TrEMBL record, chain A:
Belongs to the ABC transporter superfamily. PANTHER family: D,D-DIPEPTIDE TRANSPORT ATP-BINDING PROTEIN DDPF-RELATED, TRANSPORT ATP-BINDING PROTEIN. It comes from Pseudaminobacter soli (ex Li et al. 2025). Pfam families: ABC_tran, oligo_HPY. NCBIfam families: PRK11308.1. Residues 273-292 are annotated as: Disordered. Gene3D superfamilies: P-loop containing nucleotide triphosphate hydrolases. This is Peptide ABC transporter ATP-binding protein. Residues 11-262, 302-551 form the ABC transporter domain.
UniProtKB/TrEMBL annotation, chain B:
The keyword Cell membrane applies. GO terms for cellular component: plasma membrane. Residues 87-277 form the ABC transmembrane type-1 domain. Pfam families: BPD_transp_1. It is found in: Cell membrane. This is Peptide ABC transporter permease. GO terms for biological process: transmembrane transport.
């Protein structure tokens, strides 16, 4: 981009090799990593978990935990070697010349200090000869700059009074307080909803353009890279696979690994061209979305009608502002036999709650629920209403979805033994299921902590299927996994539905995933069904502004 | 607890270098096990006891043809043998009651967390009530209500101990209950007993387990206290506590050995259990793994 200027790079990493020493011996975390960073550039570091991208980020910040050792190479910042400096020397650099933004915006801020006080503290610590009065003026200015509305009024608010996106903006403001040359941003948008992510990335780009700060953006998300990075470094197992300008990486990746990463990213199809046949059946004239839902001829396996749930407010009764908060309001969901129906929404939209109500894990105040013609009283606990046991679930985080004290074999056998089979049905075979899901049988004697994330999630799928349910609710089953693993899991889910004849409710925040899997989609917002209809209708014809904003929030690069 | 953890515990030398408490505790255990083989007299057998040799000072050679190394008590029983046999009773009572107490407490705590509502309220209020009373008082009330006997004193010690385990296990279980693997167990509609014992309990006991070694020391001391007060084990089967009590009224007359030697044995036992227990606790406690 700025190659014509040809200036000295701000940061140079030269053949860096890092080892981690533990009781078990030493492991090489980074091997022979070289890269450089120009002023005013956004450099993306992308890789899957274990690629060493965060370690590299921490090394640049001088924040490596004890046990790490540099065995070769160097990190040069502005011509000076960064490693081997003592804490006092680091103090002159960290926060002042190199600062950081982390993923968890809640943990990055002190909950007991106003954001203004935290900004002031940072400004005073990183700038000499600044009076408290000046610091305050600059703090307000920084808040304004990162797009906090009414910065003077919000200056004295506490972190919990801000939304997630605004908190991350405050964190960015604090990172800017020392007027740094480099910001290391480690997954800065991964904890945010898609629409907010887009805004934060736009802000980062704008700040880079205005202040010529350089950003090292550590991420696992090709979408984020495609949106704002100037150059990309692709990492795998501690080594640099390839590095180039972003457009080259995206359009003409040289390495097989980069190609596979790109291929694994789910893509959103917006033009109706590909599924025109299906669309043509429905779109003579302008059908309303209700018509389209009702037009599903087969009897649904699941019918949820007008479900309303309220939560008691938190805190002491006298101090509650609104005593009852509504989690779901008049939500109706219908799932066709053998179909996959998607529920999409941002955090707090109630999409997980409806899944848990349908599975019988939570009760609801009002509403009707029918499964395969039998109606259940959802105001009763699931065990009493008989709803529990009808539906199986696949959860988001496979790390906590398996009992750590039970071997894989025990977990799966339990599912077979207690599953909801009709009398006379054949018992499913654990070993056959393992084969079908591509799991080696040798895993049966292992414990969850000995498995990879992808393996654990497959075991969770096997557990759900082995109980022979008619319906499976999958709640963000791929969000905690690496992209390449994500694609495998999605494929497995799709195959399972066809082979096992189950019906699936697929809950996700990712529109592209839902589009890939689901025939019809419900879009949730603030506990209500905001938009609903066949996938084709939602993506190509829906006029709902919220649906449009969700679609627009997708990285353009991965939209066809 | 993982098998590896237990293994590591035994593989590594505990603490820094050889230590007196570990040696002492090992010796106590060994002596208690082989007591009938090495004791010169069975203090529970009236035929081996000669009443006219009561209160002999240490070193006296008795009718049986052996030396009373630590003297005899007011009934003519060999103090050394009484200590060996008393050790057995003290250890059996405290180990049994601690083990059962932990099991009962953990189950109660985990059940309170799982069932919630009134089950939780009832169990935890009993726990609160009990922990607000002095331990010795609870034990006294239990003994007075239950009557004397070794089985009763074990029961009394269980009643004293369970509450602490229940409170800790409930706290851990409450955070485990919200994890998806328990949702998955519920979705299978497993029997409640299976959910509790197979899924919830094994994942909630780790922090409470670290308490066991320390509680064991308390149990030995408490049993001794009760026996000393004459509320513990029956008079004809002296534990260390009642052995101390036996000589209590002779202390001022110069017959120091009747109380002193059992008292020293008791002191050494409790001290070694506490030192070794603290060491084990530190090793099991994940928060102090770094040592």
């Amino acid at each position: 981009m700025r190659e014509d200027i040809c200036q000295e790079p701000l940061l140079v990493v030269n053949n860096l090799t890092l080892k981690h020493r533990a009781m078990a011996g030493s492991t090489t975390i980074l091997r022979d990593v070289s890269l450089n960073l120009q002023r005013g550039e956004i450099l993306g570091l992308i890789g899957e978990s274990g690629a060493g991208k965060s370690t590299l980020g921490n090394a640049i910040l001088g924040l490596l935990p004890p046990g790490f050792e540099r065995t070769a190479g160097a990190i040069l910042f502005d011509g000076k070697a960064l490693d081997g400096m003592d804490e006092r020397q680091w103090d002159a650099i960290r926060g002042r010349r190199i600062s950081a933004i982390f993923q968890d915006h809640t943990a990055s801020l002190d909950p007991l200090m106003t954001v203004g006080a935290q900004l002031e503290e940072t400004i005073l610590a990183t700038n000499e000869n600044v009076s408290r009065q000046d610091a305050r003026t600059r703090g307000v200015e920084l808040l304004r700059r990162v797009g906090i509305p009414e910065p003077r009024e919000r200056y004295h608010s506490y972190p919990h009074q801000f939304s997630g996106g605004q908190r991350q903006r405050v964190v960015i403001a604090i990172a800017l307080a020392g007027t740094p040359d480099i910001i290391v941003a480690d997954e800065p948008t991964s904890a945010l909803d898609a629409t907010v992510q887009k805004q934060i990335l736009r802000l980062l780009r704008q700040l880079v353009n205005e202040t010529q700060v350089s950003v090292i953006l550590v991420t696992h998300d090709m979408g984020v890279i495609s949106e704002i990075a100037d150059r990309v470094v692709v990492m795998k197992h501690g080594e640099v696979v390839e590095q180039d300008v972003t457009s080259a990486i995206l359009d003409t990746p040289r390495e097989e690994y980069t190609r596979s990463l790109l291929a694994a990213v789910p893509r959103l199809r917006i033009s109706a061209s590909e599924d025109r046949k299906e669309a043509a059946e429905n779109s003579d004239g302008r059908p309303s979305r209700d018509e389209m839902i009702e037009s599903d001829a087969t009897a649904p396996i699941l019918l949820a009608q007008d479900i309303t749930k309220t939560f008691a407010g938190q805190g002491l009764r006298w101090f509650r502002k609104n005593a009852r908060k509504s989690a779901l309001r008049d939500v109706s969901v219908r799932l066709g036999r053998g179909a996959i129906t998607g529920i999409v929404g941002e955090s707090g939209s109630g999409k997980s709650t409806i899944g848990r109500i349908i599975a019988g894990l939570e009760t609801a105040g009002e509403g009707k629920l029918e499964i395969d013609g039998t109606s259940f009283d959802i105001s009763l606990p699931g065990r009493r209403s008989g709803l529990l046991g009808q539906v199986q679930m696949i959860f988001q985080d496979p790390a906590v979805s398996l009992n750590p004290r039970m071997s894989v074999g025990e977990t799966l056998q339990e599912s077979v033994r207690f599953g909801s089979r009709q009398p006379g049905d054949e018992k499913p075979n654990v070993a056959v299921m393992m084969d079908r899901l591509g799991l080696p049988r040798s895993l049966l004697t292992r414990y969850p902590h000995q498995l990879s994330g992808g393996q654990k999630q497959r075991i969770c799928i096997a557990r759900a299927l082995l109980a022979s349910p008619q319906i499976i609710v999958a709640d963000e089953p791929t969000s905690a996994l690496d992209v390449s693993v994500q694609a495998e899991i999605v494929k497995l889910l799709k195959e399972s539905v066809v082979e096992q004849g189950v019906s699936m409710l697929f809950i996700s925040h990712d529109l592209a995933l839902v589009q890939e899997l689901c025939s019809s989609i419900y879009i949730f917002k603030e506990g209500r069904v905001e938009d609903a209809g066949p996938a084709e209708f939602i993506f190509s014809h829906s006029q709902n502004p919220y649906t449009r904003s969700l679609i627009d929030a997708r990285p353009r690069r991965f939209t066809r | 607890m993982k098998a590896e953890t237990i293994l590591a515990l035994w593989k590594r030398p505990m603490g820094h270098g050889p230590s007196l408490p570990k040696f002492l505790l090992g010796a106590y255990m060994l002596l208690a096990i082989v007591a009938p083989l090495i004791a010169l007299q069975n203090p529970y057998d009236p035929l081996q006891i000669y009443g006219w040799e009561a209160s002999s000072p240490p070193g006296t050679v008795g009718t049986g043809g052996f030396m009373y190394l630590l003297g005899t008590d007011g009934l003519g029983r060999d103090i050394a043998s009484t200590i060996l046999y008393g050790l057995r009773i003290s250890l059996v009572v405290s180990i049994t009651s601690t083990a059962i107490g932990a099991l009962v407490g953990l189950t109660a705590g985990v059940s309170a967390a799982y069932f919630g509502k009134w089950v939780d309220v009832v169990i935890m209020r009993v726990v609160d009530l009990q922990l607000s009373l002095p331990t010795i008082l609870v034990a006294l009330i239990a003994i007075v209500t239950l009557g004397p006997g070794i089985d009763r004193i074990i029961l009394a010690l269980i009643i004293v101990q369970w509450a602490t385990y229940a409170r800790i296990a409930r706290g851990v279980a409450l955070s485990e209950i919200n994890k998806p693997y328990l949702d998955a167990a519920r979705l299978l509609r497993l029997p409640i007993s299976r959910i509790i014992f197979r899924h919830l309990l094994p994942n909630s006991i780790a922090p409470a387990i670290t308490l066991i070694p320390i509680e064991l020391g308390h149990a030995v001391a408490l049993e001794a206290t009760l026996s000393f007060l004459g509320l513990g084990v029956p008079i004809d089967k002296p534990s260390l506590g009642s052995a101390v009590a036996n000589g209590f009224q002779y202390l001022l007359t110069g017959q120091y050995w009747i109380s002193l030697f059992p008292g020293l044995a008791l002191f050494g036992l409790i001290a070694s259990i506490n030192f070794v227990g603290e060491d084990i606790r530190r090793r099991l406690d994940p928060r102090s793994r770094s040592i």
